[in-house]
Structures are given as structure tokens and as C-alpha cells.
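Reply to dn_fold:

You asked what the input looked like. This is it:
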Amino acid sequence: MFASAFFIYTMHLSSLKLTSFRNFETLKLTPSAGINVLHGKNGSGKSNLLEAIFVLCLGRSQRSNKDSDIIKHERESYRVEGVIHDDGRSIELAVAVMRRGRKQITINGVKSKASELYEKFSVVAAGPEDSEILAGPPSVRRLFLDLYISQQSIKYLENITKYSRILSQKNAALKENIEFDSFNFLLAETGARIIIARQQFLETLNKSAGSFYSKFSKNGQLDMKYKPSALEEIEIKVDESRIREQFEVKLNQVKEREIILKSSIVGPHRDEIEFNINSFPARTHGSQGEWRSAAIALKLSVYQLLKEKRGFSPILLLDEIFAELDEHRSAAVIDSFNDLGQLFLTTALEPPAQLAEKALNLKIDSGQVEAVR
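and this is what came back:
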């Protein structure tokens, strides 16, 4: 895990260039190191621009698992380039993807791995799709965990990558009806570390997100509980060896079912987070406004946590966060923007006056961006 910080410095994007990315044929942007408000009609490319910044920072999209989906129609590749200023240093980044799946990441012109981006940079994105964290399938909640825990702990990213590789090998063995017990030991060993990291992350997030949500919703309550599929109940004081043992016991219990299903059914790839709003399950009892408020509370809490862990302010991307929020909730969200680093915020309407007066205002239309005075 990254060391806790004794001081905070600002990381910011100073230039961005896109080629064949979503609806942008080409685009060059010089953003402000502070607040950037992007406004334009729906479908103009606001969300795509935020996605490009996320891709530049971490080498992957927060919206899509398929890199080829991002390439502009009838083009064979996309490329995102930019310069990030990080504690006085200027770092040149580029991420390029071919339609057939080949990806190349460079840092200062040197071919690099995605893990190196996670080590160096940090970005938090919130948008309309985040309601799915509260109301969608468990896979969305697991992706939320993996994207943001990996930014505070490179060891977690290594464990998730290793776990996924072992899981694929075990599933292949199950499909081919060959011995797979050796994979269970490895899954339990790596999975125990993932479970501990997720539990600790959510414990910290629960307090902070609950506080944000209370401000946004006139003292409403938000809480969350981690539900690992490998354990009957997770204890407050987690112990790696004990979790590993319980994980192995559970794998042995479901062995016959896995043989029949030809798939691994227990482990971090099947974990769940239980969200409650005002003591009721968020997934079945929450409204659109409550889901949006809760999602924004979660992302601002993640931002705060990463800032403390990493020692610098992540880039913050907020996409249409005022949609479906009433006046009180919108005002409370704006009040929470104090003490932020670089912020990119999109809106289909005119930007809120409190933000517009201290922001670089950018208008997006038909894949083009221009500053508005």
C-alpha cells in the first residue's frame, strides 16, 4: 500500500489530445489546473471527454471493459495523449489501442505497463452510470472496488491480476474434466488477501460516505456491508490465515457443484456489497435521487481516501452529477467542492453560477470544444 502522506500536492492534466476516440476525430484541449466546466447538449461528447482523461490516467475506461468499443466508427485505432504535472514534474503519457485488441502505453516515450499508471497517477470518476453501483448487478460493485482499491494499493492490483489468471486456469480445468484441487489452494491464498483489502477499504468508506450522504439528503443514512462469498460472516478483525482456511473449506463444500456447473462459484469474483439507505436495501427500495446522491457520496469519499493515502489530489471527473438532484442536494454537493485539486464537471445546462465564476468554461458541440468567456 502507498504510504500515508504528511503533505498534499496537486497533480493536474495540462494538455490532452485525442485521435479517433468515441465521437472525436481529433481534439486538443488545454484545461485549467483548477475547475473545468464542460457544457453542451446531450450526445455532444462531454462524457466521452471525461472517459478519455480516465483512460489516459489508468490505461482503461471506467465505462467499458472492451477497448475496441471506444474506437471511433470505421477507424482502426484510437490514441489518447497528454501531459500530467505531478509534484513539479511534467510527464508525457499516451495510450493507443488497435481494433484487434493490441494496446500500447507509453510514459515519457517509454513502453510501460498499466500497473505503472496506477502507481503514478490517480483519478476518480462519477456519472449517471454510478446508480448501478447501488441498483445494478454485483459485477458493477466488484468493478468499483477493484478500480479504486488498486489505486491505493499496487499490491491489490497484483493480487487481482494473479487471482484472475488462476481462476481462468481452474475454469479451463473444470471444462476439460481434469484435476483442479491445486488451483483451490492458490485461489484461497490470493483471495484471502483480496478479501482483507476489500473489507478494510469498505470499513473506511462506510464512515466517510455516510457523512457525505447525510449532508446531501437532509440527514439521510447510507451504510454498506461487505459480503464475501467464501465466508459465512466476515469478522471486524480479519486474519489472513483464518480467512484462507475458511475459503478452502468452502471450496471443498462446493466442489461437486462446481464439477457439475463446470465453473468456479466461490471467491472474490462472486463477492457482493450490501448497501442500505435509511435502513432499507438500496437496490430494491431506493429512488433515482437517492441512488445518485449515494453514488456521489461514495465517489467523493473515495476521492478523499485516495488523497490521504497517496499524498496528492486525484483528478476528479464529475459527469452530469446534478441530473435528478433537487436544489438542496445540488447545493450541498457544490459546497463539498472546497479543497479539491483539478476538477472536470459536465452539464447539459448552463453551469451553476457558483462554479462558473471560478472555472474555465468549455462548450462542447459536435466533437469540438471552445472556451466560453
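The chain is about 45% helix and 25% strand.
Hope that clears it up.
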